[in-house]
């Protein structure tokens, strides 16, 4: 009996020990989870995500609001918005290489480039918001000063400040998303793919929510309050981003180590220039000192005024930047990505304006934009899975095929029932008579809103964000077009555009990572700056297309030309992929 009681007591003690051990194990696990979460929240990745989200949110709010503000200032006329778009596109097209070279020439010591770009961007937006608040508050008085010339001065100041903010934003994007992220991930391809995908997801979400937020403020309050809201956001964002980027720089020692062009083993702009001139590498890279040329060239350069010498140095930097871009092993992938910008098959103001003329309501367009954003997020998820399973180069091939396959629905929509395609309107005989009779397509009213919308388009490399919201504002009081006989064409068009976003964003991430991995560190900035210039150039071409064929009946031709450009871009990538496989390059 006593032995049984002892066994029972021992059993209870054993059970109690097991329960205590399980409790301690759960506590250790909970502490480890909370500790891991705390480490992650204090880590560089999370800080970069938060800083990027704040920056992207501010950018999207500003890009949307500035277009609306310019329309309001000029009496609901699109001239100022068109001028702003051309100035922004032209400045990045011309200065993209210089911006990238500035990023390359400055070491990461104390995060000078990132902090300077951040400060210039936010202060420019803040000053521009103050000017806009003053103009909106005293518009009638300003219009009477100097016979209205003070108004012109205000418009000029607003556009210049907004353009400076966009250039600084370009520099910040190159410094953080094309350079810092590579170092933070320790050059690990898997981690780099994850960070790129996460940053793109954040961008997709802010593209939708940020314009909605500032739009609600402007609608419920006023334009002045909207300017104040953006002003306050930028000041707060400036402080938070500055602190977070400084902390990232401190906790990632590798960021303080950046090889100069002379230290890099890869050929650089300075070394290339020096070899051509038969002189040692030029420190600084953007200016050519006197005596760096030979013979008469040396004497001619020395005879030039200092300002012309500096201008000559800047032109030389741009030239060398484009040459550096051309000689990159991933040149074809960058060109292929740029060709994808020459398209009307996106949710920009042109496509949504066309849909509006075909009887699609603004509320339905907003819903379709939400679905498109979800498709874009799916593309970022698919990219990480495909890269892990098949490697980076093969992921690009699969994404290209998926993108092109979905766009075939858009090609079919051109010839499907309900399509307003009328090639006769492209002929030189199209004039007042044909427009009065409605042409072969009947008495359909002629809509010109897509062309007006294109003038409003902020010409930005990333055209997936604010354009539909801009069109909602512009077309708010415009009657929708006559309902077509069949909605088959418009359904196929948007089905193709939405599903193609999956392959598009997966392909975009593929090219982005290929550029990050393949470009030597000393040229990473200038090459990405030239890539931004190429994106702007090809984006401008698609507006030239629309100007050449502005009517809804022409849209089918624009679709076919867009698919041709996209096919050319993906063909360039296929050529690169074939060469990469022949070289047996790492594909993971």
UniProtKB/TrEMBL annotation:
Residues 262-296, 432-462 are annotated as: Disordered. It is a multi-pass membrane protein. SUPFAM superfamilies: MFS general substrate transporter (SSF103473). The keyword Repeat does not apply. It comes from the Eukaryota. Signal peptide: none annotated. InterPro entries: Ferroportin-1 (IPR009716), MFS_trans_sf (IPR036259). Its main location: membrane. Keywords: Ion transport, Membrane, Transmembrane, Transmembrane helix, Transport. GO terms for molecular function: iron ion transmembrane transporter activity. One of its GO terms (cellular component) is membrane. It is found in: Membrane. The chain crosses the membrane at residues 37-58, 78-100, 112-136, 148-168, 205-224, 230-249, 330-356, 362-383, 390-416, 555-576. It holds the Pfam family FPN1. CDD domains: MFS_SLC40A1_like. Belongs to the ferroportin (FP) (TC 2.A.100) family. SLC40A subfamily. May be involved in iron transport and iron homeostasis. This is Solute carrier family 40 member. It comes from Lepisosteus oculatus. The lineage of its organism: Eukaryota, Metazoa, Chordata, Craniata, Vertebrata.
């Amino acid at each position: 009996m006593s032995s049984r009681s002892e066994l029972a007591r021992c059993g209870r003690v054993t059970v109690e020990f097991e329960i205590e051990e399980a409790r301690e194990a759960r506590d250790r696990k909970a502490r480890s989870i909370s500790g891991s979460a705390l480490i992650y929240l204090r880590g560089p990745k999370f800080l970069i995500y938060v800083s990027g989200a704040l920056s992207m949110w501010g950018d999207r709010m500003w890009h949307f609001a500035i277009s609306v503000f310019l329309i309001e200032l000029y009496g609901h006329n699109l001239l100022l918005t068109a001028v702003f778009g051309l100035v922004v596109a032209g400045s990045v097209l011309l200065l993209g290489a210089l911006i990238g070279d500035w990023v390359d020439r400055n070491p990461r010591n104390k995060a000078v480039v990132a902090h300077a770009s951040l400060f210039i961007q936010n202060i420019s937006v803040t000053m521009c918001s103050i000017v806009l608040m003053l103009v909106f508050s005293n518009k009638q008085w300003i219009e009477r000063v100097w016979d209205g010339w003070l108004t012109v001065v205000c418009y000029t100041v607003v556009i210049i400040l907004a353009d400076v903010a966009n250039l600084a934003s370009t520099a910040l994007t190159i410094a953080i998303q094309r350079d810092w992220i590579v170092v933070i991930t320790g050059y690990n391809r898997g981690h780099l793919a994850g960070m790129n995908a996460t940053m793109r997801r954040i961008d997709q979400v802010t593209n939708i929510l940020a314009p909605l937020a500032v739009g609600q403020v402007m609608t419920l309050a006023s334009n002045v309050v909207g300017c104040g809201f953006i002003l306050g956001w930028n000041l707060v964002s400036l402080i938070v981003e500055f602190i977070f980027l400084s902390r990232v720089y401190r906790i990632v020692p590798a960021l303080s180590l950046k090889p100069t062009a002379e230290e890099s083993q890869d050929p650089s702009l300075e070394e290339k220039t020096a070899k051509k001139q038969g002189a040692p590498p030029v420190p600084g890279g953007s200016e050519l000192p006197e005596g760096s040329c030979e013979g008469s060239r040396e004497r001619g350069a020395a005879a030039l005024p200092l300002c012309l010498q500096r201008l000559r140095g800047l032109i030389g930097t741009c030239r060398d930047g484009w040459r550096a871009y051309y000689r990159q092993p991933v040149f074809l992938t960058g060109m292929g990505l740029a060709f994808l910008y020459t398209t009307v098959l996106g949710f920009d103001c042109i496509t949504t304006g066309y849909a509006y003329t075909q009887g699609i309501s603004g509320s339905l367009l907003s819903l379709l934009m939400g679905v498109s954003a979800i498709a874009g997020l799916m593309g970022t998820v698919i990219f990480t899975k495909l890269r892990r399973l098949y490697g980076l180069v093969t992921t690009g091939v699969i994404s290209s095929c998926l993108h092109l396959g979905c766009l075939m629905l858009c090609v079919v929509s051109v010839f499907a029932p309900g399509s307003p395609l009328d090639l006769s309107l492209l002929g030189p005989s199209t004039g007042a008579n044909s427009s009065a009779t409605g042409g072969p397509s009947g008495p359909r009213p002629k809509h010109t809103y897509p062309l007006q919308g294109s003038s409003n388009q902020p010409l930005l490399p990333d055209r997936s964000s604010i354009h539909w919201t801009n069109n909602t504002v512009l077309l708010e009081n415009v009657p929708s077009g006559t309902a077509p006989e069949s909605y088959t064409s418009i359904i196929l068009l948007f089905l193709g555009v939405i599903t193609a976003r999956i392959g598009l964003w997966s392909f975009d991430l593929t090219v982005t990572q290929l550029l990050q991995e393949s470009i030597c560190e000393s040229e990473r900035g200038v090459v990405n700056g030239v890539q931004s210039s190429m994106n702007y150039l090809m984006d401008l071409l698609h507006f030239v297309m629309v100007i050449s064929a502005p009517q809804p009946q022409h849209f089918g031709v624009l679709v076919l030309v867009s698919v041709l450009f996209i096919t050319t871009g993906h063909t360039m990538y296929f050529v690169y992929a074939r060469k990469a496989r022949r070289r047996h390059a790492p594909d993971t």
